[in-house]
Amino acid sequence: MGLTDNIKRALFTRGGVHPPANKLAASVKISDGPNPERVLIPLTQHVGSPCEPLVEKGEKVLVGQKIGDSEAYISAPVHASVSGEVASIAKFTHPSGRDALAVEIISDLEDTPAEGIAPAPDPLGMEPGDIRARVREGGIVGMGGAAFPTHVKLNPPSDKRIELLIVNGAECEPYLSADYRLMVERAQDVLHGARIISRAVGAERIVVAIEQTSPAAISAMRDAAGSGGEEVFTLPAVFPQGAEKTLIKTITGRDVPSGKLPMDVGALVDNVGTCAAVSELFLTGMPLVKRIVTVAGDGVTGRGNLRVKVGTLVRDVIDHCGGLEGGLGQVILGGPMTGLSQYTLDVPVTKATGGIVVLSKESIISEEPGHFTCIRCGRCVRHCPMNLMPYLLGSYSDAGMWEELESVYINDCVECGCCAYICPTKNPLVQLIKVGKEGYSRRKRKMETLKKDKEEKSLEESNA
Amino acid sequence: MANSKFMATVSPHLHEKGQTIDRAMRDVLIALTPAALWAIIVFGFNAFLVMLVSIVTAMLTEVVMRWILGRKATLKDLSAVLTGLFLAFLLPVTTPLWVVAIGSFLAVGVAKELFGGLGKNIFNPALFGRVALMISPLWIYTAKFVEPFWWRGIGFFSPIHTSINNAVSGRVIYKTFTGGVVNATTSATPLSLLKSGKMLTNTVTGPTPVGATWLTSNGRPSGWSLFLGLKSGSLGEVSVLLLLVGACYLLYRRTIDWRIPVGVLGGALFIFLITWNHPLYQMLSGGIWLGALYMATDWVSSPVSRRAKWIYAVGIGVFIGLVRLYSPWPEGVAISILIWNVLTLLLDRYVAVPKFGEVKKPLFNRLPAFPKPKPIRVEEKA
Asked: I want to staple A302 with a disulfide (CB 3.0 to 4.6 A). Which of A79, A281, A322, B237 is the partner?
């Protein structure tokens, strides 16, 4: 960090933080991940209703075969990523920390594809409805980390018009470089996927948004776009630039109203990984069974960007990269700012896992201990990308003042972690906010049932 | 390999390095060092004693108070040291050491620990200690200023005794090493000169500190000597230049927010300009720079949001101007900041921070007036 940068930041901070990028694996080409003997495919890999298993114990499955689906609208099917035999359908540790139903498959290591996997003849000439149906069947979800089912995003209500498709290439999380490598190596695929998506929603404009710290990706995408009409937008390097609402604000200058969706301002944001997955689905017919995962950090021997089969255990991926190094530290699925820290290596890589970051014990212990007393320095307020007051959110939540949490807009918090990152007392603000969200919604539900009961009672009384 | 030994924490798993409370306090101490050294040079060894007593008392008070209140000792975070040094900076060198100790006790013991410790105090502790002394019967001990380099001729280590009997007449007794007693009248601060109207007449006499003609004009300190720190006043406030040097370091370290000093100085300058009351002289005298750069920017007792910070800062500046011009006191920095410390509570509650995605940006918050008290549930015993 240069002197001028530091002075600028000291004077004009407007939301966001600048964690050291540590993109250790950015120069490593994408390579194939391990070929595991056993995979665990969770039936919940997305936002929405969990899938019901479609296979039984002992059944033979093939790569790309649908093994779980749900009737619900907001849901996405899951597919087998290896060919082999279903060993069990039981509860296993999920990256979220809870146990969740997963299909355990013992691989025959042959990767025989399922029948009926065929490319779409003319993806860019397809009807929007057909595109959506195919995307849904392909089990495509947002690959940036949130894992929201993509077909839902592609189906805006008829009164909402989407003008702008933003292809999100802002990989603002430290360590992660999967999206960057994807843009550098497979720019055409990303653009092809984006064109299919824009056809499905009728967006006229496609903007590829890339942070200024990735010049190679910017030039690769510019070259790929050529005269195709897609624009490449250079973003300032700040965390959380890749967050949906922040991104739309930077590109269009429009605020997505609180509680509303990007489509309310005529925009749709899709990650570059999602676009590439869509492209692959239409070009080969293979559903989403693999994803690119960055393995980095000082706690793992090797580093790289691997094409990992969904359901591969983190242990296998780390062994593939040479194993752990140093004392047992922290294993984070996703980036270190918003990722999920794991207590075991026996968790599967899901569709949402963009990275496996392993921090060694030494690097964690060198972190200064917390003071845990808010000193009201106001840094969290200054750095909050959503312009909230995190110190109030934290202290209300700590005090169990669930009702007051609404007045400080707890549900607008995106849990990006800027406040806790910047806090000089190292207050665990995100943790407090998560507890607060839980407490607030529990309280709200309780008040609603109480109100209902009261109304019913008074109705009965008036009837009697 | 034992699986259960990974550390599982809630995101974010990274924290900014080199930005902690301890580090911030240390940064402020570093920033104050030039001004402290200058105070010792200008006011002699007594200045060092005042600082030492203030800091030691502050630390002792913190330890004892936290022990009595059953809290964990937090001496390591240096906040007590800082409060002690700040209090010393606000006192003249003639203050008897026992009065310094009382002030330091009030600052840390009452304004900080009784309010709940670091982060919970409403007032800036050092200013609270200073104003408590100022409005107490002990005020007479804290109102005697001497001219810079008073120790020339009688020795750097000469002790000062502020005479109790002659306190009203304002006499300060300097003692030399050999036991000789030198009586000297106190020296007026630039601001009290202004207040008494002596600025315009040519009655002030006093030794020219260094002898350079550009340091005085008509026998009173010139703008340059005010800026460089050749004037009478409290320990820490004299050198605007050194305070600015320290503040630049703090700005670079992102410990203080530039909005507050700019607002305070701007607000005061505005008042002095519209009344045309020696604006340059006013701006360079008294504790306005110490207050604007170090006291008003105190994290705990200043507002958190940008907009509230502007209101707070300009408010302090305007109050400083009004107190200096229209009250019996020559100086109003401490009292203005304390008043706005209280108003900070309201500013933080009612001045809106327009959140992202709010279509209509409100000026004021829709926060409830104050949190509703929770009904106390009495558990029935079975």
From this structure: A322
At B359-373, the pLDDT tens digits run 666 666 655 555 555
**C-alpha distance across the termini of chain B, in Å:** 51
* CA-based end-to-end distance of chain A: 75
For residue B83, list chain A residues with Cβ-Cβ distance below 8 A: none
Q: Report the interhelical angle of B79-90 vs B21-43 (nearest 10°).
A: 30
**Which residues sit opposite A113 in a β-bridge?**
A63
* Residue A181 domain flag: yes
Query: Which of B119, B359, B371 lies nearest to residue A373, judging by beta carbons?
Result: B119
Is the pLDDT reported for residue B201 higher than 60?
no
Helix, strand or coil, per DSSP, at residue A317: helix
Complex ipTM value: 0.84
Q: Could B299 and A376 be called an inter-chain contact, meaning their C-beta atoms sit closer than 8 Å?
A: yes
**Structural domain boundaries enclosing A395:** 379-463
- In angstroms, the CA A313 to CA B283 distance is 68
- Residue with structure tokens 């860019």? A124
Residues of B in contact with A401 (CB under 8 A): 371
Q: Is the pTM here over 0.80, yes or no? A: yes
Contact at 8 Å (CB) between B236 and B290? yes
Q: List A295's β-bridge partners, or say none.
A: A304, A356
CA distance A153 to A170: 19
Q: Do B306 and A408 touch (CB under 8 A)?
A: no
Last residue of a domain, one of A227, A251, A284: A284
Q: How many domains does chain A have?
A: 2
- Two tokens, residue A289: 């069974």
Q: B304 to chain A nearest CA, in Å?
A: 4
- Per the structure, the count of domains in chain B is 1
Strand partners, A359: A330
